[in-house]
Structure to design on (573 residues):
DNA sequence: GCCGTTTTCGGCCCGACTGTTTTCAGTCG
C-alpha cells in the first residue's frame, strides 16, 4: 500500500509538534507544517510524483531537505526523524498540545518537571492538584485542563456546514437587533464555505463595543463564556459549538472581514505581501506607517496590495494569491449558471414526492430540465426499480413531458454498480434512458485497486454517464472507500464519462480538491442534489460551494448547459 | 527549513485575551 499524501502530512505534523515541544527554531517548525499543508492540497499523490522522477522541491514550501524526507517515506514507509524524536520523548506529547490551553512550552514543562507523557498522566496529575505547583501554572489553568480533557471525550470536533447555518441564523439576527450594530456577518471557514466548520466567527461593526459584548455573552443558548474582552469574546453554545465574536469600527470592516475570514495560511501570505511593499496589514486596516490607506472594504485592501478580489471560497493559499496578482483568477460558477439538476428521486423508490411534484418544484427554481434517477433493484432497502417498473416510469415521464411547458423531465436512473463492475440494468432498458447516474452502494471495503477497477469496468459500458457520489463518504460517519481517484478521473475522461459533485450536506462528494483535480485534467463534473424531496433540490448551493472551492467555472460544469448541448456531451461513441 | 522585484543570508504575520504576573509569557485565531 503506497504512502498517501495525508499520511506524509500527518507525519510532518507530528514532527512539527514534537520539534516545537523540544524548543526547535519556530520557523523550522513552521516549515514542517507548511509542507504538510502543501501535501494535503496536492492534486496528485506525492508517491506517484516521486516515482515519475518529479522534483518535489519545486512545490511551495518544500525544499531539498523535505523533498528528501518525502522520498524516504514513499520508499520505506517511515521517517527516521520521527523515530528519533520519539526516542527522545513520548510521541503522545504531540496530542497534549492539541488540548486547548496547552501549548508547546507548557507541555515541555509538564514532561520535564512531572514526567507527564500521556493524556491520562496529565488528567491524574491535574486531578491530584500537582499542576498548580509548576511555575506559570495555577489553579485556574489546572481546572481548565481537567475541563478540556473531560470535554474532549464527549464532543465531536467539526459540524457540517448546513448544521452550522441553522445555529448561526438566529444568533446573527439576535446580534443585529442590538442598538448601534451596523453590520453583523459570519466570517471564518463558514464564509469560505468549507464543508465542515469547527466554530463560528462573527464580525460586528459598531461604534461602542460594550453593549454588543454583553448581549453576546448573555445569549440564551450560551453554555459557557470561554473568554470575554472589550473587542473579542468566545463562548460555547449548548450544542458544544464554539462562537467567536469580534467587534471593530466601521472604517476597519473590510480589513477585519478579510482577517477574520482567513484561512490562516491565506492571511499569512497576504500579510507577507504587505510587508514586502513596506506596509502593514492587520484587522484594523492596511497601514503605511501610522496612516491607514485601506480597510473599509475587502476590495480596497486587495486593490492596494496589487491583487484582484479573491472570493472567500478560494482563500486557502492554494495558488489564489499568485493568480490574483496575474489577474488570472477563475470566474467561479454561480447558482445563476445552473440550468438543471441531474440526480433526484421520487416516491417510486425512496423519495418523498411524486414525479409531478418534483417536476413542478424544479420548474419553480427556473430549471430547464430535471433528471429523475430512482434507484435500481439491487438497492432493495430503497425499493429499487426493476426493469419493468422503470419501463413504466419512463412511460409516465414521456406522458408528463407532453403536458409540461418550460421544463423537460429527463429519463434517468441511479444504477447500482455491481461488485464485478456490471450495471444493475440490462442494456435494453439503459438504451431508453436520457442518461445514467451510476453508483457504488455496497462492498465499500474492497482494496483500492479492486474498487477502482470495479468502477472503470462499469464505465466501459457505453450507457454509463455520470459516477454518483464517487467516494461514498458520509461526513462524520463514514470514511471514503479506498479508491485511486487519479485513475478514476483519467478513466472517465478517456471513456467520455463524468463525475458528480453530490450536494447532500453530509456527502459533498466529490470534494473541492477532487474538483480541482478534474479541472486540471479537463474533466467536467455534474453538480447534483440527489434530492429525495422537493425542498432539498435547494441543496444545489452546497454543491456550488464545493465546486467554487475547487476553482470550477461555468464551462467546467455539465449542468450549466442547455439540454441540447448537454445531450451532445453525454453521447458516447 | 524555506526562500529571493531589497536578499544565496537573514529574514519569516499580527494582535487580543488569560493567568500568573508586578511587566509579560503563553496561547489562540
Amino acid at each position: 500500500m503506497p504512502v498517501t499524501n495525508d499520511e506524509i502530512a500527518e507525519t510532518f505534523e507530528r514532527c512539527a509538534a514534537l520539534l516545537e515541544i523540544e524548543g526547535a527554531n519556530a520557523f523550522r517548525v513552521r516549515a514542517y507544517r507548511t509542507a504538510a499543508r502543501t501535501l494535503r492540497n496536492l492534486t496528485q499523490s506525492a508517491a506517484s510524483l516521486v516515482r515519475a522522477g518529479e522534483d518535489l522541491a519545486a512545490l511551495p514550501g518544500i525544499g531539498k531537505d523535505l523533498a528528501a524526507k518525502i522520498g524516504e517515506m514513499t520508499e520505506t514507509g517511515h521517517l527516521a526523524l520521527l523515530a528519533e524524536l520519539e526516542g527522545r520523548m513520548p510521541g503522545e506529547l504531540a496530542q497534549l498540545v492539541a488540548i486547548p490551553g496547552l501549548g508547546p512550552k507548557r507541555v515541555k514543562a509538564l514532561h520535564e518537571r512531572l514526567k507527564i507523557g500521556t493524556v491520562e498522566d496529565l488528567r491524574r496529575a491535574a486531578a491530584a492538584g500537582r499542576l498548580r505547583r509548576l511555575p506559570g501554572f495555577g489553579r485556574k489553568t489546572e481546572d481548565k485542563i481537567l475541563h478540556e480533557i473531560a470535554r474532549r471525550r464527549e464532543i465531536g470536533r467539526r459540524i457540517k456546514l448546513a448544521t452550522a447555518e441553522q445555529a448561526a441564523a438566529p444568533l446573527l439576527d439576535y446580534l443585529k437587533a442590538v442598538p448601534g450594530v451596523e453590520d453583523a456577518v459570519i466570517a471564518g471557514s463558514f464564509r469560505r464555505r468549507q464543508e465542515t466548520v469547527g466554530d463560528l466567527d462573527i464580525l460586528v461593526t459598531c461604534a461602542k463595543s460594550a453593549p454588543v459584548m454583553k448581549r453576546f455573552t448573555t445569549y440564551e443558548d450560551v453554555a459557557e463564556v470561554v473568554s470575554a474582552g472589550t473587542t473579542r469574546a468566545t463562548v460555547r453554545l449548548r450544542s458544544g459549538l464554539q462562537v467567536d465574536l469580534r467587534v471593530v469600527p466601521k472604517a476597519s470592516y473590510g480589513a477585519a472581514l478579510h482577517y477574520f475570514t482567513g484561512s490562516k495560511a491565506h492571511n499569512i501570505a497576504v500579510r507577507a505581501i504587505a510587508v514586502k511593499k513596506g506596509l502593514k496589514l492587520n484587522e484594523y486596516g492596511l497601514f503605511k506607517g501610522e496612516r491607514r490607506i485601506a480597510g473599509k472594504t475587502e476590495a480596497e485592501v486587495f486593490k492596494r496590495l496589487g491583487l484582484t478580489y479573491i472570493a472567500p471560497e478560494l482563500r486557502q493559499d492554494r495558488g489564489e494569491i499568485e493568480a490574483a496578482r496575474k489577474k488570472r483568477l477563475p470566474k467561479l460558477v454561480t447558482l445563476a449558471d445552473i440550468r438543471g439538476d441531474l440526480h433526484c428521486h421520487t416516491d417510486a423508490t425512496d423519495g418523498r414526492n411524486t414525479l409531478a411534484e418534483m417536476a413542478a418544484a424544479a420548474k419553480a427554481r427556473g430549471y430547464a430540465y430535471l433528471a429523475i434517477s430512482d434507484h435500481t433493484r439491487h438497492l432493495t432497502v430503497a425499493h429499487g426499480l426493476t426493469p419493468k417498473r422503470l419501463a413504466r416510469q419512463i412511460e409516465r415521464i414521456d406522458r408528463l413531458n407532453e403536458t409540461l411547458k418550460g421544463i423537460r423531465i429527463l429519463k434517468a436512473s441511479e444504477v447500482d454498480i455491481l461488485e464485478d463492475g456490471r450495471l444493475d440494468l440490462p442494456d435494453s432498458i439503459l438504451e431508453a434512458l436520457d442518461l445514467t447516474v451510476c453508483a457504488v452502494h455496497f462492498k465499500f471495503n474492497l482494496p483500492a485497486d479492486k474498487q477502482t477497477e470495479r468502477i472503470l469496468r462499469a464505465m466501459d459500458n457505453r450507457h454509463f454517464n455520470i459516477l454518483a457520489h464517487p467516494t461514498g463518504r458520509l461526513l462524520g460517519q463514514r470514511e471514503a472507500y479506498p479508491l485511486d481517484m487519479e485513475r478514476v478521473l483519467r478513466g472517465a475522461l478517456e471513456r467520455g464519462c463524468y463525475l458528480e459533485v453530490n450536494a447532500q450536506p453530509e456527502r459533498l462528494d466529490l470534494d473541492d480538491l477532487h474538483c480541482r483535480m478534474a479541472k486540471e485534467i479537463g474533466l467536467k463534473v455534474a453538480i447534483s442534489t440527489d434530492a429525495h424531496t422537493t425542498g432539498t433540490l435547494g441543496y444545489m448551493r452546497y454543491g456550488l460551494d464545493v465546486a467554487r472551492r475547487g476553482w470550477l467555472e461555468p464551462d467546467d460544469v455539465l449542468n450549466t448547459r442547455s439540454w441540447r448541448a448537454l445531450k451532445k456531451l453525454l453521447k458516447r461513441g
Remarks:
- Residues 87 and 336 of chain A are 57 Å apart (CA to CA).
- Chain A has 24 helices and 17 strands.
- The mean pLDDT of chain A is 94.
